[in-house]
Amino acid sequence: MKSLPNVAIIGATGAVGQVLLQLLETRSFPLDSLKLIASPKSDGKTMIFRGQTLRLEPLSESAFDGIDLCFFAAGKEISKRFAPIAVAKGAVVIDKSSAFRMHPEVPLVIPEINAEALKNHQGIIANPNCTATIMLMAIAPLHRKHRIERIIVATYQAASGAGAEAIEELREEVRAQVEGKSYSRKIFSQQYAFNVFTHNSPLFDNGYVDEEMKLLEETRKILGDPEIRLSATCVRVPTIRSHAEALNIEFQEPVEVEEAYAILRSSPGIIQHENREKGLFASPIDAEGRNEVLFGRLRKDLSHPNALEMWVVGDQLLKGASLNAVQIAESLLTL
Amino acid sequence: MKSLPNVAIIGATGAVGQVLLQLLETRSFPLDSLKLIASPKSDGKTMIFRGQTLRLEPLSESAFDGIDLCFFAAGKEISKRFAPIAVAKGAVVIDKSSAFRMHPEVPLVIPEINAEALKNHQGIIANPNCTATIMLMAIAPLHRKHRIERIIVATYQAASGAGAEAIEELREEVRAQVEGKSYSRKIFSQQYAFNVFTHNSPLFDNGYVDEEMKLLEETRKILGDPEIRLSATCVRVPTIRSHAEALNIEFQEPVEVEEAYAILRSSPGIIQHENREKGLFASPIDAEGRNEVLFGRLRKDLSHPNALEMWVVGDQLLKGASLNAVQIAESLLTL
C-alpha cells in the first residue's frame, strides 16, 4: 500500500464508523483523501474531518475507484457483497464484520498479538469480534508464557455492540421507564432498561448463540492454537459502550497470581485497574473512552489448582472495534 | 411452636421486610398476632396487614416478650445482638442475615433442598444468601442424581440485594443521568447507572469478595457436601430485584442435556423458561414477582466432557430472601 493512501469508511455514520473517523483524526493517520460512505438515508448529510466538511456518499461499485484502503463497518451483508469488489479494484479492506473472519486466507488480527499474520493478506483483513478482542488482550500474553488449556467466560456486554441505534434504544427505553411512559423497541426483542438478557445473536442447535461460538473460533484462530478449549455465556447488560468479562483461565500447570500480574503489567495495550484497599475494580464506565483494556481481580480459582480468575473491561468501540481496525491499518503502512 | 404463633418482623420497612409482610398476607400464614419492628426513623409510621393498620414499634429487648416466631431482616449487626435475646425469651428466629449461617448448630435451610435440617434447630434458623439460594434451587436436584464436583459461577445481581435504599439509588441515579443532572450516591461507591461493578461486599486477602465466599461456604453446608468445589465472580448490574447467574457445572461423569432438563423439570420451585425458536431466555424482568427460579440454556460445555452450562434467574426478594424465610416458617409449623 502506498504511504499516503486514499481511504474510505463504509458505514461512516454508525457507532463504529463515527469512532473510526475520530481516530483517523486524533491519531493523525497518514492519508491522502478520505471518502465517507453511508446508507441512502444519510444522503446529503455531512461529517467533519480535520476541519473539512465531507459529504456522505452512497455505496456503489464505483465508490471504490481509486481507493487504496477501506474500513468496512456496515454489517456482514454489505461486507460480503462489496469487500471483494473493493479488493478487485485494488483496495485493501479492513472488515469489522464477521463475514470473512474464519476464512482460511483472511488474517484475523489483533496487532499486539498476531501482527505477523498481516504479511500474507490477500486484500481482506478481518477485525475480530469485540468480545474476543477484549478477552484476548489479557489472555494472549499469559498463553505465551504458560499454555492455557481451557477458558470459561461470562460476559457483560454493552449496547454499542449492537450499533448506534441500540445505544439510542437503551437510552430511550430507560428514559421512558423513569418517566413512567411506554416505549416501542425496534432493535431488541426483550426489555433492555433495568434488565439483562442472553446475547441477541442467532441460536445454534448446540445451545450456544453465535457470539459465544465466535469467542471460541476466533480465539483459536488468533492464538493459532486449535486445541484451546472455551465455553462462553454472552449476556447483554444495560451499559453504553464497554464490555466486561469474567474469565476463568485453566493453565497446563499452576501459575502464581503475582506472576500473572507481572506478565500482564508488561504487556502492551492493557492496564491493571483496581484499588484493592477500597475494594474497587474496573467497571465499564472506567473503560469508556480508553484505548487500553483494563484488567484486574486476578485470583487463584478456589476450585482448580491450575486455574486463575480474572476480570477484564474494554471500550467496545475502541479496542473492541475501531481502534483495533486503525491499528491494523497503521501496521499495514509499516509492513 | 404453637400452631398460631405471635409473629414479629424485625426490619419491616426494608426491601425484604416489606415483601415478608406481603407474603404473610397472601400466603395466609397462620398467626395469632403480628408485630412490626423497625428503626427509630420509622417511629409513628404504620403499615397495613390484612386490612389492619399496624404501628411500627422500635427495637428493644422487651419487644420480644410473648413472641413465638421472629423474622430478622435488619442486617447482620442487629441479628447478632438481638436474635439470641429473642431465643432466650422463647422465640424461634428465622434470620435473613449472614450472622449465624455458618454456625455449626444453626440450620441453613432451603426447604425444597434440606428441610430435614430444621429438626435439630436450637432456636435460630438461617436463611441463605440470595445468590446461593437461586443457584442451589437448580444445582441441588442435579447433584442428588449425578454428583457435581465443581461449579464456576458468574452473577448478574440486582440492586435489591443491597436493600430498598439501593433500589432507590439506582432509580435516582439513572433518572439524573437521563436528565443530564448530577447525583450524589449514598450507598455505592461506584456509578451504578449504565454500569456494572464487582459486588460491593468486603474484599478478602484471597482476592474474593464476601459474597463470593458465601456462595462456596453455603453451597457446601446446604448440600451437606464439604468436597464440592466452587469459584465465583459476583457482579452488581443495574437491575431492580432479580439475580441472574451463569453456571458452569462439572459432574463426576458426563450428563446428557436432556436428562438434566428432565431432572429439573420435575423439581419443585423451579421452572424452565426459554423459547429457543425465538432465541429468548429468562431475564430478570421475567423472574420479577415470581416465586419460582427460572432456568434454561442447558447445553454441553464445549470445553469439558463432564460439564454443562446453565442460566438461572430468580427474584432476589422472593425465593432469594422473603419467600424462602416464610417457607422455612411454614415448614416449622408442620414439624
SSE order and pairing:
The structure is a homodimer of 335-residue chains.
Chain A: E1 6-10, H1 15-26, E2 33-38, E3 46-49, E4 52-55, E5 57-58, E6 69-72, H2 76-88, E7 92-95, H3 111-114, E8 124-126, H4 130-145, E9 148-156, H5 164-178, E10 197-198, H6 210-223, E11 229-233, E12 235-236, E13 242-251, H7 257-265, E14 270-272, E15 274-275, E16 280-281, H8 284-287, E17 293-300, E18 307-315, H9 318-333
Parallel strand pairs in A: 1-2, 1-6, 2-5, 6-7, 7-8, 9-11, 14-17
Antiparallel strand pairs in A: 3-4, 9-13, 10-12, 13-18, 15-16, 17-18
Describe this structure in words.
The structure is a homodimer of 335-residue chains. By secondary structure, chain A is of the alpha/beta class. The first copy, chain A, has 2 domains: 135 residues, NAD(P)-binding Rossmann-like Domain (Rossmann fold, 3-Layer(aba) Sandwich); 185 residues, Dihydrodipicolinate Reductase, domain 2. The first copy, chain A, is 31% helix and 25% strand. The first copy, chain A, contains 9 helices and 18 strands. In chain A, the strands form 5 sheets. Chain A has a 6-stranded parallel sheet, sandwiched between helices. A 6-stranded mixed sheet of chain A has the order 11-9-13-18-17-14. In chain A, strand 1, helix 1 and strand 2 form a beta-alpha-beta unit. In chain A, helix 4 packs parallel to helix 6. The longest helix of chain A is centred in the middle third of the chain and has 16 residues. The model of chain A has no long low-confidence stretch (mean pLDDT 97).
